[in-house]
Design brief:
By secondary structure, the protein is α+β, with helices and mostly antiparallel strands. It has helices spanning 13-21, 26-29, 112-115, 117-141, and strands at residues 2-9, 33-39, 49-56, 59-71, 75-81, 86-95, 98-107. It has 4 helices and 7 strands, in the order βααββββββαα. Strands 1-7-6-5-4-3-2 form a 7-stranded antiparallel β-sheet, covered by helices on one side. The chain starts with a strand and ends with a helix.
Length: 142
């Protein structure tokens, strides 16, 4: 499964990146995220480990997230360990006085999940679009 969604935000690229890099901001724009807890001492950049509690289709699930790439002002890459092992990134680039935010991810679905790949992909894409829309509202209201 692969997904890629983007949105343009009327805020400077550096501001958008550092907002995204601060994991304490995530509950402001990710509706499915119920709680985030840092694991270890690293709070930003490669090596940051988080345990996230999420609401997904009426179920509460936990996933561990590890930041695997951190390019200031450009890109944050991560791996998710939970029910499904996934990789993703969120990138920013300046675009016409604002910022283009691109969220991309992939996961290898196995068993019954593989049979439902189309449905799962559509659900994940919808969630990402809704989250990016909330991110836009939060940042443009600032």
């Amino acid at each position: 499964m692969r997904t890629r969604q983007s949105i343009r935000i009327e805020r400077p690229c550096e501001e958008v990146f550092w907002f995204l890099a601060d994991h304490t901001n995530e509950r402001r724009w990710r509706a499915e995220l119920l709680a985030t807890r840092f694991i270890g001492e690293v709070r930003q950049g490669v090596g940051t480990h988080l345990r996230q509690t999420l609401s997904y289709q009426g179920r509460i699930v936990e996933a561990d997230l590890e930041i695997t790439e951190f390019v200031p002002g450009e890109r944050i890459g991560f791996t998710v360990h939970g029910g499904v092992r996934a990789h993703g990134s969120i990138s920013v680039r300046a675009e016409r006085g604002g910022t283009r935010v691109v969220a991309a991810g992939s996961a290898e679905l196995k068993g019954s999940a593989a049979m439902m790949e189309r449905f799962i992909t559509q659900t994940v894409e919808r969630i990402v679009i809704e989250d990016l829309t909330r991110l836009k509202r939060v940042l443009e209201a600032a």
